[in-house]
Amino acid sequence: MADDRLRDRGTIKWTSMMLPEHVKMLKEVWKEDERVERGMLAEDQAAEIDFKLHRAWNDHLTVEIKYHNGFDYNQKKVKIKSVDRINKRLNVVDQSTKHTYTIRLRDVTEVFIV
Questions:
Q1: In which domain of life is the source organism classified (predicted)?
Q2: Which of 3, 46, 62, 68 could form a disulfide with 107 if both were Cys (CB 3.0 to 4.6 A apart)?
Q3: 34-74 confidence digits (pLDDT tens)
């Protein structure tokens, strides 16, 4: 906690002398420091995910998908609308907001049938 206050104190001290573009760039740099790298799946994990996605799509089941969004992992309860095997993407509908999303298959790390 004290380390955060010291870092923020320096930012607060110099912010008045910096342009808004500089402040924005600093925030982006700090955000990149918190980035979580996407891990590699084992072959059996990938086969299990493929089986669960195929079953959920055929039987119109709701699934909880954990996927990497570029910076961190997200987890959503969705219904699979379609599978684009050419571009390797899932088109899904979020069950809570009813929004349609596209998720790359290589970003999917876990699938749970609800």
A1: Bacteria
A2: 68
A3: 777 777 888 999 899 999 999 999 999 999 999 988 878 88
On whether both 19 and 71 belong to a single domain, the answer is: no
Tell me the DSSP string of the chain: -HHHHHHHHHHHHHHTTS-HHHHHHHHHHHHHHT--PPPPPPHHHHHHHHHHHHHHHHHT-EEEEEEE-SSSEEEEEEEEEEEETTTTEEEEEETTT--EEEEEGGGEEEEEE-
- Name the pTM for this structure: 0.66
CATH of the domain at 80: 2.30.30.100
Q: Identify which of 97, 100, 105, 114 has the alpha carbon closest to the alpha carbon of residue 56.
A: 114
109 and 54 housed in the same domain: yes
